[in-house]
Design goal:
Aminopeptidase, single chain
Length: 186
């Protein structure tokens, strides 16, 4: 159980709960078409961004199955994205993680650096057995991050859901606790 997320400092980043002062930074990436392209939401309006920020400010703990933790990814005082860890099942010790990054900061290892910490929380603090990551099959950047982290591609669902008006494809990656224990990220 994670009662309240305390800031996590990595080599270059701080992962921390969202605050009201993050609204402008968050809108800088949430309003972009290229960010929303592979997400279920559309680019956010200022009003949508305000509502979403308020919701994220409540996502600071993993106390029960179904809870989601959404830390801001901060670089040098600027929020450049967020990462996610959801506790899917207490009984089966399952979780799911993800990440979204402002495109101006992609390709520099920030998503990997932040995602490692979500895996660490899931495996080491929650004692999960298995953590999955999902992405649109066209999202090659996300695929590369999961592969770099050592997750296995377990599934490629073709035509599995209507996504933004067309049949979409989804990839599912996974890692087990035993694989995490052998990873260079441990």
């Amino acid at each position: 159980m994670i009662d309240h997320l305390q800031p996590i400092e990595t080599k270059r980043l701080v992962l921390r709960p969202f605050t009201t002062s993050d609204e402008t930074d968050m809108f800088a990436f949430e309003s972009r078409e290229d960010v929303a392209r592979y997400l279920y939401n559309e680019p956010r309006s200022p009003e949508d961004n305000t509502r979403e920020l308020a919701a994220r400010q409540t996502k600071t703990a993993l106390r029960n199955q179904g809870d989601t933790l959404i830390p801001a990814i901060e670089l040098d005082g600027t929020v450049i994205g967020y990462t996610v860890l959801t506790w899917l099942s207490r009984q089966h010790q399952q979780g799911e993680f993800g990440y979204v990054l402002h495109p101006s900061y992609s390709g520099q290892g920030y998503a990997t650096e932040a995602a490692v910490e979500m895996l660490r929380l899931g495996f080491e603090r929650l004692k999960l057995h298995r953590i999955i990551g999902r992405c649109d099959a066209r999202n090659t950047a996300s695929q590369r991050v999961m592969e770099r982290l050592g997750l296995r591609k377990e599934a490629h669902f073709v035509g599995n859901e209507i996504f933004k008006g067309a049949w979409g494809e989804e990839l599912v990656y996974a890692m087990l606790a035993a694989e995490w224990d052998r990873s260079p990220w441990k």
